[in-house]
Amino acid sequence: MRIRSFKLSDYVAVTQLLMEVLSEACFEETMEAFARQLSWDCELVLVAVDAEDRIVGVLIGTIDDNMGYYYRIAVAPDCRRKGIGKSLIQTMKQRFLQRKVSRILINADKHNEMVLPVYESLGYCANDFMRSSHRLKIVNG
Which has fewest Cβ within 10 Å: 48, 58, 65, 70? Predict the structure, then answer.
């Protein structure tokens, strides 16, 4: 398995994975944020690809006010508990550090409470979880 940046040719496979893994409400919110993040910076959308070139995981991150955010993570059901989520998180962390973000936070909402233990296993704690209804959005200055 390898982790790489999202490419336009990944769009259908990523969309199908998100549709399979997320609830309908979460999928709708995530697709809006996914589209916005792609328009801003596709280097902060990571995919995990298996040996057969199948996309088995995706992590959407963003940077806002010099803070890095893990927005949404999804791993194919048949590939869970194999370290894919952790690899995505660690690779995104490196991207955040390369961009010298001042702090990294995890978007913790009703849709991803079940994956917060994965972040905790990597050393993140309750102070790193951002619990709000904040969504990725363009701020008009």
Answer: 65
With a CB cutoff of 8 Å and minimum separation 6, the contacts of 31 are 15, 18
Angle at which helix 24-40 crosses helix 11-21, to 10 degrees, equals 150
Q: Give the sign of the dihedral formed by CA 72, CA 78, CA 82, CA 87.
A: negative
CA distance 92 to 13: 20
For the record, the structure tokens of 53 come out as 């070139």
Read out DSSP for 10-65?
GHHHHHHHHHHHS-HHHHHHHHHHHHHHHHH-GGGEEEEE-TTS-EEEEEEEEEET
Measure the CA–CA gap between 141 and 89, rounded to whole angstroms. Answer: 31
List, for residues 12-71, the tens digit of each pLDDT value. Answer: 999 999 999 998 888 988 998 898 888 888 899 999 999 999 999 999 999 988 999 999
In angstroms, the CA 106 to CA 124 distance is: 9
Stated pTM of the model: 0.85
Tokens of 40: 């801003």
DSSP-derived 3-state class of residue 122: coil
